[in-house]
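Section handout 9: paired folding examples.
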Amino acid sequence: MPLEIRSFKLGPLANNTYLLIEIPRREAIVIDPSFECEVLLDTLEKENLQLTQIWITHAHFDHIAGVPTLASRIPHLKIGLHPADSPIWHQNGGADWFGWSLNVQVDPNFTFFHGQVLKFGETLIEVRHTPGHSPGHVIFLLPSQGIVFCGDLIFYHGVGRTDLPGGDFEQLHRSITEQVLTLPPHTRLLPGHGPETTIAEERSQNPWLDNKTAL
């Protein structure tokens, strides 16, 4: 396989941070780097991997906390964010909403949009805008792998909270119904917290979803 995916559980909120490795070129992308991301730097150094991009599903502080560390150690990183989450980013991810202190210090330098197709080595990755948890939340779909990096949109038997600024449950439900549950049942969902799950599992077992709509 030319693409390898690794998961790291990082920080006090047990965030799932994902490392995508394009094996032939030894190039890497990190999705949602959280606190305590030094383990990522160690992995990159030990395995001679070049980190070139950071992709952010949404700008809440626990999903961007590692950006300053990575950006300070690795020059010329491309950092991607949907523009609708820029206000949250510029509030340091809303860290002070929870009594945390965070100074992001660096800005995204490219934007995601719905329907965008990104290429990483031989792998095509589709961006889908999925507001509800935050206004600019996106997910990353790898059709050839049957994998979705779904951030805090949907979890194993759960969904993202909508009581934070910019949250909207009706939007969240619509995003899940239209952009996630329409995918093949075997599709793996890799969330921002907790264990991975599948479309089939969430269609039948997620208590937050209207299963008639989901089916």
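Moving on to protein 2 of 2.
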Amino acid sequence: MNLTPAMQNFILHWGEMGTKWGVNRSVAQIHALLHIAPEPMTAEDISETLNLARSNVSTALKELQGWKLVKASRQLGDRRDHFTSVRDMFDLVTVVVEGRREREFLPTIEALREVAKDAETDATPAKIKARMAETLDTMEMFDKWYQDISRLSRPVQMSLIKLGGRIARFLPKSD
């Protein structure tokens, strides 16, 4: 695949975003390439297009598959795997948000529950216990909100997103 300057910039920027999210730059660049590629690509195609070592590409593809961001498929007459990114942007965002929830948010809630339990039996001052409880309550509230929203149909979710900040018109004014 020949990359235009715009395609190169897209891939480079996605790689930079990846490093800010804690993802290896080449992993993010491979994901960006697969995201914009019109057809599935083999690991060799990816390696050649991005000028990356084949071993680096293989490792990155396994990581992306583990996150459910990339899928492998086979084509008749070709023994190689062909890779594609999740094509639908709404689905892609959902996969990313759910993955981060599972890997980061839920373990933090669980850790906060344990800390709060420990604080009940040790000498943690009351004000600090209250702050810990507030932190846990707020995180659990956001997680419950997320779970409630994720159960809604996609059209309803899209309507809510499009409604955005305009919903504030229906809420009481705050001081």
